Amino acid sequence: MNQLDTPLYDRLVQFAKQEPISFHVPGHKHGMLFEEETFFQTAALLDQTELTGLDDLHAPEGVIAEAQELAASFFGAKHTRFLVAGSTVGNIAMILGSIKRNQIVLVQRNCHKSILNGLELAGAKPVFLAPAYNEVKGRYTHPTQKTIQKAIQRYPEAKALILTYPDYFGTVFDLKETVEMAHASRIPVLVDEAHGVHLKAAKTLPLSALEAGADVVVQSAHKMAPALTMSSYLHLNSEYISISSIDRYLRMLQSSSPSYLLLASLDTARKYLATRTERDMEKLRTAVDALRKLLSASDLWDVEKQDGDWLKIVLRVHAGYQPRQLANMLESSGIYPELVTDRHILLVHGLEALSEDDLNLVRTAISDMEAPACIPPVQAAHLFSEPVQELAVSYAEMEEQQPVLTKWDEAIGCIAAESIIPYPPGIPVLAKGEIVTKQHVEMIQLWKNSSISFQNEHIEQGMLTYRGTNEGELF
Length: 475
Ligand SMILES: Cc1ncc(COP(=O)(O)O)c(C=O)c1O
Hints:
Layout: H1 7-17, H2 40-44, H3 63-75, E1 79-83, H4 86-96, E2 104-108, H5 113-122, E3 125-129, E4 133-134, E5 139-140, H6 145-154, E6 160-164, H7 175-184, E7 189-192, E8 216-220, H8 221-224, E9 232-236, H9 243-253, H10 260-274, H11 278-296, E10 301-303, E11 312-317, H12 323-332, E12 339-340, E13 344-348, H13 356-368, E14 388-390, H14 395-399, E15 404-407, H15 408-411, E16 415-416, H16 438-449, E17 462-466
Parallel strand pairs: 2-3, 2-6, 6-7, 7-8
Antiparallel strand pairs: 1-9, 3-14, 4-5, 8-9, 10-11, 11-13, 12-13, 15-17, 16-17
The structure holds pyridoxal-5'-phosphate (PLP).
């Protein structure tokens, strides 16, 4: 297969050049109905529908099938599916296609909300694996091998192990060893690799999840590769899970009018990744190292030593400064970080080096930054008491109960009727069905005070809980 080919993108361009008359949707009629000065017009030329020769995502046999096969060949999968609703839909379809009602699933607890939503929709019985707290990094990373081993021994009947790899900050672990451990117990491994679509592009980047032997892998092409937002891939390479069971859910969950713009950007993003040479990537790494050095000149933070994905630059803000305030200063100089937590600012470097002008802008912004007023240092959070923990009540039991809005101080001891989700990163600090602890409430208050946003309607007043308060009392 020739990785220089982009069959879907090429066919769309060829079609647009014919200037066809549209007696079909979409209503913008090849962009002609947009006002002249909008940016939409050029893009709209490729924003097509399932016309003759343009194939159909839900029953591909032409250019979409070819583009998916090229992607499968590059990433090293038996099957690849193009997704137009992000890794969110990929994670949900991966779970629904692999797990049946009431089946036990081992799940890394600090996962994206889409994993938890998928588990709830499937009616699965999650067993959460607590991540270890890394004192040096100042955050939770991933469950240890010991925790995973313990969970497999305790739940040999588990139908899947679901992991996030790499994490938002580019941290990885020995996934190959973990997969071998799970496979030895005939447990398939499903990986949310939303942040790792580019790992195949260089030997100096961590091993990709497919290379590590994972069964199903979901990647946000739009996060680290040049693809349009919401474009993602789902790959399958498994003797345990069939692609048809996942396809069934993708057909249910994805739009019946998937965006050809997104699909074509998945085709071109794969070509982009496939054509990076080791030399390109080495030059990029040198540029990233230089930027890291430049950022290290500030005495407001330390630049974290990166032991995983070197495109992630983590600024560990010195105790006493509020990261959000520092990020605001960067933003006022036109520099926008990806994520701000109570301790870190995360910068995501692209797959090309910055221009000299942009580097100079960063240099000036850093040297102009003045130390803001000090705030009390943030205490380390310890949220997980048990390394391996089931939900306090099942999703089915929760269905029978009425959630009530509960003030924060009264919520302690109750069962959470909603996940509490700081965003970004979208990893629930408290998952629906868990018992609310004092540590959760303290952490949520601390994050609120650090200007971290939450995707919860009632966050100022409290949260939805199942009343009855104490553990087990209600159910
Ligand atoms: C770990 C992880 N998984 C899944 C997702 C969802 O990805 P998408 O935005 O492509 O739907 C995100 C989004 O930030 C994420 O961080």
